[in-house]
Design a protein that fits this description.
With 392 residues, the chain is α/β, with parallel strands linked by helices. The protein has 14 helices and 15 strands. The protein is globular. 47% of the residues are buried.
């Protein structure tokens, strides 16, 4: 069995272009799907996939670790940057899909079988109107409460939101009180039995991140995500040691050594590798081993397309430290037309039970993908009140 081609199929899904990776073989009807979605870098990732292709053509697709090492270590530059790392990730996911189909087993069976009966899902409420945060706008808090109530009505027992605004390296109490008001409104609306996560999007400085963490501590967050830049693990460790709220980070880390340093420093209680960026399922399993060794929870970052979600769910059934799966269910109305999933979501509890379909357990409709061709993503820009450039 040999790899005969590697294709990138781009599908525009409003705020991002999904990049689906198809690895074909010389066996009739045998191919695998992966995902390499990277917002605002679609053309670069597709080019990186083409750059990696010559290394893999003619190779046995079931030699997954060998091919991973080849993609990572060859061409002189290690593939731990975001563009090449994402391209590698998409191909790696597709190779696992192929191996599952060859053996007739879902991926989690290849890794030793399920360690749990179900995987819990959570949704994302989105962010707020940035200009209103600084005035502690009551209407904004009410809007977050309404979105939280809607998520619970849809069956979710956990949700995430971006209730923390972008701030200068140092600001007064205005944005802190605004975030607190939004989180308080959500907690009062949904009660204590619903888990709330707040994503700071790495916008704050360490000083402001600590202020937000302390202000939101009374509301019992499931976790506080990226209270400062992920490149600052010492600062994350300081924030984590200063509050009882679990700190989460990792979606922008792309190598095993970065996660090793983060977890060694106790920079988080929740590791969030993105399977489509960190090196695919092969690397995610190594990161999961680090998480297990340090008793760190695993909750992969997953706001992308349906292949990424399927990969995250397969990982969730196989890894003991995995606690919850991020999911997107209302990004585009035709999402279900693109993918046929081999697992069922219990809409009452928003949990998934393991399926028996081989590989990732999904089928993609290439005709439907082609109906949504590439579109340039809209620029997302943030500026502080003084006109300086902020973090989106």
């Amino acid at each position: 069995m040999k790899i005969t081609d590697i294709q990138a199929h781009v599908c525009n899904a409003r705020m991002r272009n999904w990049i689906f990776v198809k690895v074909l073989t010389d066996q009739p009807g045998l191919f695998g799907w992966g995902e390499a979605t990277l917002e605002w870098h679609t053309r670069a990732v597709c080019g990186a996939i083409e750059d990696l292709k010559p290394l893999l053509l003619g190779e046995d697709p079931t030699r997954i670790e060998y091919l991973w090492q080849t993609m990572f270590r060859q061409h002189f530059w290690h593939s731990n940057g975001i563009v090449r790392g994402t391209a590698l990730s998409g191909i790696d996911i597709a190779l696992w899909d192929i191996l599952g189909k060859v053996t007739g087993m879902p991926c989690h069976k290849l890794w030793g079988g399920p360690v749990r009966d179900r995987v819990r899902l959570y949704c994302h409420l989105g962010g707020g109107r940035m200009e209103s945060f600084y005035e502690t706008d009551v209407g904004e808090a009410r809007r977050f409460a309404e979105l939280a109530e809607r998520a619970v009505e849809h069956g979710f027992s956990a949700f995430k939101c971006m209730a923390v605004p972008p701030t200068l390296p140092l600001e007064g109490l205005g944005p802190v009180r605004a975030a607190e008001k939004c989180v308080r409104a959500m907690r009062e609306t949904v009660g204590d039995n619903i888990d709330i996560m707040v994503d700071c999007h790495a916008r704050p400085s360490p000083a402001m991140g600590l202020q937000f963490a302390k202000a939101l501590e009374p509301y019992g967050l499931y976790f506080l995500e990226e209270p400062c830049w992920p490149e600052m693990p010492e600062a994350l460790a300081h924030i984590a040691a200063s509050v009882s709220t679990p700190i989460a980070t990792g979606e922008r880390l792309t190598s095993l050594d970065q996660f090793h340093r983060l977890l060694t420093l106790r920079g988080c209680s929740v590791a969030q590798p993105d399977i489509t960026h960190c090196g695919g399922l092969s690397a995610a399993r190594r990161i999961a081993a680090l998480a297990e060794a340090t008793r760190t929870a695993l909750a992969p970052h997953n706001p992308q397309g349906p292949v990424s979600t399927a990969a995250s769910i397969q990982l969730g059934f196989a890894e003991p430290s995995y606690v919850i799966c991020e999911t997107v269910h209302e990004d585009v109305p035709w999402r279900s037309a693109v993918v046929k999933e081999g697992f069922q979501v219990d809409l009452g509890t928003r949990t998934v039970q393991p399926g028996s379909a081989p590989g990732l357990g999904i089928e993609l409709d290439e005709a439907e993908i082609a109906r949504h061709p590439f579109e340039q993503e809209l620029p997302q820009r943030v500026f502080y009140r003084d006109g300086s450039v902020g973090d989106w």
